[in-house]
């Protein structure tokens, strides 16, 4: 496990990515897309978990244009306030450009088979959806992505499989937003939505207030099965 530099495509410099590789050093790759807390312990643990499953995992620091090296938690009011400050100042279009640069870095990395997927959480869930719509990703997964309902017009750009995990009691994605997602995406043969009744936002974040092991394990199994079908 290490930190590497990724070259931005707009010439503005380089940004950090947390890299985890499988023991073999070879496999398909996955971009791990952060929540609003930066490339923190949860994101790094997720990359390590994917590496243990045979994937080269790379988590880019998407807040680097505002403040590089952010690692916040969900445990204090100060961290939540900082996280929302960064979220509100985040340029989504530049974030997708940086994810595209991360995809390119992985495809050119020694040991990568050439297939690259993405998995994102919260803000990263939205970015996973947009990654499927705007980039060359081979497969993407979003956990409780926010504001996808506001960007359903982008679904026409989806060319590869997309899996979305939806928390039915998500405090950041109200019922009407979930209904709009289903109405706009259920007919798309490339998109699969799984609903998790009774679950709130971030139910798969280990140690979080709404963590539910049973549904987190189910969602993670579905994610691994999805990647096995589309990346291996």
In short:
The protein is an alpha/beta fold and 232 residues long. Helix content is 35%, strand content 22%.
What does this molecule look like?
Helices cover 35% and strands 22% of the residues. The chain is built from six helices and eight strands. It has helices at residues 41-52, 77-88, 92-107, 123-134, 175-185, 213-230, and strands at 2-7, 14-20, 27-33, 56-60, 112-121, 139-143, 162-167, 191-196. The protein has an eight-stranded mixed β-sheet, sandwiched between helices. The longest helix has 18 residues, at 213-230. The radius of gyration is 16 Å and the shape is globular. The protein starts with a strand and ends with a helix.
Describe the secondary-structure layout.
Blueprint: E1 2-7, E2 14-20, E3 27-33, H1 41-52, E4 56-60, H2 77-88, H3 92-107, E5 112-121, H4 123-134, E6 139-143, E7 162-167, H5 175-185, E8 191-196, H6 213-230
Helix pairs in contact: 3-4
For the residues shown, what is the average pLDDT? Answer: 97
Helix content: 25-40%
Q: Which spans of ≥5 residues are poorly predicted at pLDDT below 50? A: none
Sketch the major β-sheet: 8 strands, mixed
Structural descriptors:
8 strands, alpha/beta, 6 helices, globular, 8-stranded mixed β-sheet, 35% helix, 232 residues
């Amino acid at each position: 496990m290490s930190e590497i530099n990724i070259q931005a495509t707009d010439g503005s410099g380089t940004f950090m990515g947390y890299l985890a590789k499988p023991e073999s050093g070879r496999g398909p790759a996955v971009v791990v897309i952060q929540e609003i807390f930066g490339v923190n312990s949860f994101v790094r643990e997720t990359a390590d978990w994917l590496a243990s499953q045979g994937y080269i995992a790379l988590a880019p620091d998407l807040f680097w244009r505002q403040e590089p090296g952010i690692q916040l938690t969900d445990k204090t009011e100060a961290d939540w306030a900082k996280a929302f400050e960064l979220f509100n100042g985040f340029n989504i279009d530049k974030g997708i450009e940086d994810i595209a640069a991360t995809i390119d870095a992985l495809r050119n990395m020694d040991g990568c088979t050439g297939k690259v997927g993405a998995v994102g959480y919260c803000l990263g869930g939205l970015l996973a959806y947009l990654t499927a719509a705007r980039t060359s990703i081979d497969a993407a997964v979003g956990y409780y992505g926010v504001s996808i309902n506001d960007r359903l017009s982008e679904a026409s750009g989806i060319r590869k499989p997309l899996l979305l995990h939806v928390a039915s009691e998500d405090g950041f994605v109200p019922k009407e937003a979930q209904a709009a997602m289903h109405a706009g995406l259920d007919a798309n043969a490339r998109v699969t939505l799984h609903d998790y009744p009774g679950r709130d936002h971030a139910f798969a974040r280990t140690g979080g207030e709404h963590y539910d092991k049973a549904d987190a394990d189910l969602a993670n199994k579905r994610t691994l099965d999805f990647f096995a079908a589309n990346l291996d």
